[in-house]
Amino acid sequence: MLRRHNESLILSALYHDGPMSRVELGPLTGLGPAAISQLVSGLRRSRLVREAGQVASSGGRPRVLLEIDPDFGYLAGVDLTGDSVAWGLFDLTMRPVDMLRRKLRSGFTDVGGLARELTSGLRELLNSADVREPDLLGMGIGLPKTVTAPSLAEEWSPDRLKPLTGLEIPVFVGRGVNNQALAESRFGAGRGFERVIVVEIGAGADAALVVDGHVERICEWGHTTLDFGGRPCHCGSRGCVEAYVGVRGILQRYHESCGLQPPSRGKESAKLSALLRSTANSRPAAVLVRETVGYLGAALGNLISVFTPSKVILTGWAGLLLGKRFMTDIRKVVAGHTPQHVYRHTSVELGGAGPRAAMIGAAALTVEALLGRGADPRGEAE
Ligand SMILES: [Zn+2]
Fold first, then answer.
1. Total number of domains in the chain
2. Are 89 and 129 in contact (CB under 8 A)?
3. What is the pLDDT of residues 226-275, one digit of tens each?
4. pLDDT in tens, 79-131
5. Domain assignment present for 111
6. Distance 239 CA to ligand 1 centre (A)
7. β-pairing, 20-21 with 63-68?
8. Residue 13 sits in which domain range?
9. N or C: which end of the chain has fewer CB within 10 A?
10. From ligand 1's centre to the CA of 81, what distance in Å?
11. What distance in angstroms lies between residue 270's CA and the mean position of ligand 1's atoms?
12. 316 neighbors 200 (Cβ within 8 angstroms)
């Protein structure tokens, strides 16, 4: 057990901060030179770690650099949204290999049908990338927040899901926003920051907090009240954040302001893009978008006041669309709705892991398992 723990320390240091020499591993792991030497030999024999050239050292012999071997195995990350699914294949250091996107045929209540769809897409992706199934270390799945409600959470647990997929590899399941937070804190705009909030704006609104690399969902930020007695929300409450800044809420408000019928469901991404483009020559669109930026900034300000993060990262497909055009305005509103002594220590940034952040985060669930265990996640538990 102790050996595994120490291997976990070495692998984590090399994964997040490598390549580095055996000497540099000392202060990062708290292990002595003899232990490091012995553990590294074992990790090289199991092919998780490889040599990565040499660097000159002050006096003495050049030092050999060590790194995680990207070819040890592959990772699959699956991002399930309301009506589509995307599979991504990565090497162990999260370099993308190939991806595939499809419309979903099964609904979220048909867990068996959906599990079979996930497996068939994964096998198609492996085929096209010429990767063998036994070379896959695990599959991580990101679920939309509607599916992680308590009524469905048990059916979507990894233990229930794995037998339904028919796969021999470990299966991990995480909430979409948590996976985005994992991707941003490990590989994106949150890297190196101690306390980060990742805000996902899509059809709805959700947030997760990362403290010292540990991800926790902020339960129902999307359903905290932004406007007392305001718009009815699908959750049964009124005036929720989601009813103003989630894309369904934005489109509904726009249709109401123009005296139109409620918008039809679907194609929300295209509808939001069209709305944002029309602000230059449509006054109702310009007013609606200005109000939306205001609601979003005020809601982010509330999050910052409660959790005092060093960074807030705006992500999700709609968050990225809004943030790319209006980040300066969003920041101004946040500054005006957060106590100055709190705002001074934070910043609001656009996600750096890109629109595939949820897929990267899902694939990273297997990496977390490997680093936590200090060994191949497919092996028997010790
Ligand atoms: Zn609500």
1. 3
2. yes
3. 999 999 999 999 999 999 999 999 999 999 999 999 898 888 889 999 99
4. 988 778 999 999 999 999 999 999 988 887 788 899 999 999 999 999 999 99
5. yes
6. 7
7. antiparallel
8. 2-68
9. N
10. 19
11. 24
12. yes
